[in-house]
Amino acid sequence: MNQTERRRVIEQEVIKCSRCGTCRSICPVFLAENNENTTARSKNRMMEAVLEGDVELTPGVQERFEKCLLCKACKAHCGSGVATDKLIMEGRAAAVAHNGLSPAKKMAFTGLRYRKLFDLGLRTGALFQNLIFKKLPDGRGCVPRILLPGAGLNQRRIMPNMTTNPLRSRLPKFIKAKTPVSKGRVLFFTGCMLNYMYPEPGEAVVSILTRNGWDVVIPEEQCCCGTPAFTSGDVETGRFLAEQNIKAISAEKHDHIVTACASCGAALKHEYKHILDNSSLLSTWQEISTKVLDISQFVLKYCDLSKLGKLPFKVTYHDPCHLVRGMNVSSEPREILKSIPGLKFVEMKDANRCCGAGGSFSAVYYELSRKINDKKLDNVEDTGMDYLVTGCSSCRMHITDGLTQRNSSVKVLHTAEVINMAYDAASRKEGKAC
Amino acid sequence: MLKPDVIKELSAVVGADHVMTANEDMIIYSNDATMFNAKPEAIVQPGSRDEVVEIVKIADRHHLPVTCRGAGTCLSGGPIPLKGGIVLEMTRMNRILKVDPVNKVAVVEPGVIAFALTTAANKVGLLYPPDPSSLKESTLGGNVSECAGGPKGVKYGITRNFVLGVEAVLSDGSIVKTGNEVDGDMAGPDWTMLFTGSEGTLGVIISITLRLVPIPAVKKTMMAIYDRLEDAAKTVSVTMASGIIPTTLEIMDNLSIVSVENYLKIGLPVKAGGLLLIEVDGVESTVEEDAKRVSEICKKCGASEVKMAKTPAEAEELWLARRSINPAFGQVAPCKFAEDATVPRSLVPVLVEKVLEIQKKYDVPIFICGHAGDGNMHPTIMFDKRNKEQKERAEKALHEVHIVTLELGGTLSGEHGIGFAKAPYLRAETGLAGYKLGQEIKKAVDPTGILNPGKMFFYEGELH
Ligand SMILES: Cc1cc2nc3c(=O)[nH]c(=O)nc-3n(C[C@H](O)[C@H](O)[C@H](O)COP(=O)(O)OP(=O)(O)OC[C@H]3O[C@@H](n4cnc5c(N)ncnc54)[C@H](O)[C@@H]3O)c2cc1C
């Protein structure tokens, strides 16, 4: 698409917004702030004003585009189906082109582009994190020792311990199925959060796949999916990373692609279309996108649920935005959880409402994101369950932070971890029986 | 632009965080749910009645227009600050002050979302019936100011039937209290009714006393499907003539059905010419009987099918279709004139026929839907404002809808208000004497004319 075509597409989308204000009852940011500036219709209005030349791409306009979680709730709720999320990304990209990225983001995204450098950076980050973070005595994570507002590190914020031994270093590139015959090969796209922050769910994914008869390949050349960059308006870095991933994925033979990160999955399955607009790799991506499945979809479709063992857990489930609205995944994890013998599942209120993380949103607007998160935590605690299960590490980090700050006894687990525990429970029992 | 001194004065009252003056803010607060816009010079968000008083006094002193804003979902341009000045955003004042189950009244601040009151009333076994489709977004201050209606209006009436009293800040900063908690009665004329539907032109409402009713024991929901929209319309007048008063009698035309189905995919009859959503409520014995009789009337009037909801979930499904019309408009065209032409119930079939003719004549899509049971129809004319020629046709169609409505003895506004979108036709409805009286009343209550100027009886454009 050239500039004129792009403008036309944006105009077409903007004018679909009838300004009815239905977004007021659904936008988590609006509900927390009670200010018209934050509603979807106002973002669209802002875009319209920019297009009509009523206002320049001022820092004020940029800030209004920034203050959005990209949770897609407005779009899902909107009768006219206005893709406000896309418009906001366009707005951010235009604003970044006009005003530039904030210095902290600029540094982070340059790092993302150089996989090795990024890898090294995060690993050294892990080694040196004690300089920046103070570990909590109970091993639940760490709080920052010094304030790094640029990186969104609020004194209160509790981050998980970064691992010195990332997922992709723990696992070989090829892992054979644990069954005598292999059913095929699954490519596992790990993403950064599972790789550097939460390797255990990543290991659980591999274990689920191999015990169900699938060979696994984890391409070494995969890198960040690009979501943090392109959602911040750095389209160039976003495209660079998307292309790198498409090359890495298409270099490996595979039958399916599995993700266990809502944002990576949504990026690979849908968002790349937008990012790769003028890229020669667009058709390669189209092929790839048809094979992408979230781990819960894959388990429901290709794994044996009858082998799930007894798990006496009391759980509730939180829908990550990028799963429920990004990949249209919501019934799958519930169906799996409900099929685990002995597990008690209670639905929480507003399970599909954003937890307030929103990637870099929670870094820039930490206090606001906590306020949004508090509602989620109340709903979690109201269920009286012991565990909150979810399929997104970013949600997990943000929710865990909140739970820890309020000394809650609720623990957070990734869907894949619960599934794998259920499989473990069954094999332990079998082991005993024979 | 306001002088820095004035901004300082405003900030001193509500705090700098609650005064917005950036150009970007002005653009955002220049709108409601219509396609019109006009920028204010400042947005002020008062947090209490005292703050409202102080702000109005400042505005009065500097002779600044004050335009109240609730959720900004108005469909007639009400909260658009035509003459600049201050937009007073009332949504911070959102406390439910009292729900009294014994006397069946609620006292609320104006920024309370209607749905919040519905929920609070339900909790103590009571019902607040007015249910505009914007229930989850719009504020009670906005509802009272526009006299909002909804599907339950057929049996229960619209907002006006539930307002017992208000407190309002007048343009000199004094507070007037109207009505009372007992039965809304007060010596002299009905002051409360003066403020109900006054669209922010007479005073800033700071508290509202509302009547609640018992929740009916049972209700039955059904959907009647017709080949011809005219037959659905005929059912409305026949039902009302039969003596049964349903809670709800909503009509949807084919365009509404298809658009909602495209959006929700809930299995609506996309080939039908029209359908009626009907609900009856009350005590068990009569509800069963009424439902049966209504269903028979539908069939007699030509319904090809009548679906009766067997569970609350099924009823909710039937309702979903109706509730989703508004959001589905956008699929047909980006812009709309969302009308609320209201005629005597017996004339609904005539209005429907006329609108069908207008639609043909000007070749613009018109959704024909609405609260048919109380004659409050929503012919919604769709167009793309970028297409000048089409916009002109839409405007002509709109003009004819207004004229037809008045000719049928109806009103321009069953619930969306006059604002300035319908102000050009106001005199045609009130008559010259009525129009003058409207102007005199406004001048008497707001002598300086700072409250929502340029609207209703003070429209400055050409009158029909
Ligand atoms: C999708 C959609 C569906 C709708 N469905 C219906 C429906 O079914 N029935 C219906 O009746 N309407 C409906 N409307 C119209 C609208 O929702 C109503 O008119 C509603 O009452 C407006 O409330 P608000 O809080 O948005 O007020 P606003 O739009 O902000 O303001 C409306 C008017 O009230 C004045 N006002 C607001 N607060 C105060 C106050 N405290 N003191 C004095 N004046 C005040 C404003 O100045 C303005 O003139 C719908 C609108 C939309 C967009």
UniProtKB/TrEMBL annotation, chain A:
Residues 6-37 form the 4Fe-4S ferredoxin-type domain. It comes from bioreactor metagenome. Keywords: 4Fe-4S, Iron, Iron-sulfur, Metal-binding, Repeat. It holds the Pfam family Fer4_8. The keyword Nucleotide-binding does not apply. SUPFAM superfamilies: alpha-helical ferredoxin (SSF46548). InterPro entries: 4Fe4S_Fe-S-bd (IPR017896), 4Fe4S_Fe_S_CS (IPR017900), Cys_rich_dom (IPR004017), Glc_ox_4Fe-4S (IPR012257), Helical_ferredxn (IPR009051). One of its GO terms (molecular function) is oxidoreductase activity. Gene3D superfamilies: Alpha-helical ferredoxin (1.10.1060.10). PANTHER family: GLYCOLATE OXIDASE IRON-SULFUR SUBUNIT. This is Lactate utilization protein A. The keyword Lipoprotein does not apply.
From TrEMBL, chain B:
Keywords: FAD, Flavoprotein, Oxidoreductase. The keyword Zinc does not apply. It holds the Pfam family FAD_binding_4. GO terms for molecular function: FAD binding; oxidoreductase activity. Its EC number is 1.-.-.-. Transmembrane segments: none annotated. Its cofactor is FAD. The keyword Transmembrane helix does not apply. Gene3D superfamilies: 3.30.465.10, 3.30.70.2740, Vanillyl-alcohol Oxidase, Chain A, domain 4 (1.10.45.10). Residues 36-215 form the FAD-binding PCMH-type domain. Belongs to the FAD-binding oxidoreductase/transferase type 4 family. This is Putative FAD-linked oxidoreductase. It comes from bioreactor metagenome. The lineage of its organism: unclassified sequences, metagenomes, ecological metagenomes.
